[in-house]
Design goal:
- By secondary structure, the chain is mainly α.
- Helices cover 87% and strands 0% of the residues.
- It is built from two helices and no strands.
- The two termini are 21 Å apart.
């Protein structure tokens, strides 16, 4: 990731966040509609992936501010 530019990293983590959030909402909807442990488990996994994407965006913003000083 070090060789990627700031814009490329932002696009990468934004896509991960958007896709993961979409599947998280879909799985959460399915889990609420019917009883099933599998859908809840997948909701948790997609939630973790969404947090990974958000964390990557925050990390990218923090490292950019650090290198500008």
């Amino acid at each position: 990731m070090r060789k990627f530019s700031f814009g490329t990293r932002m696009i990468y983590f934004s896509l991960i966040t958007a896709i993961s959030l979409t599947f998280f909402v879909l799985q959460l909807y399915i889990a609420m509609e019917r009883e099933g442990g599998g859908a809840i488990f997948l909701s948790v996994l997609w939630g973790i992936m969404t947090l990974f994407g958000v964390g990557g965006i925050i990390f990218t913003l923090l490292t950019r501010n650090r290198t500008k000083k």
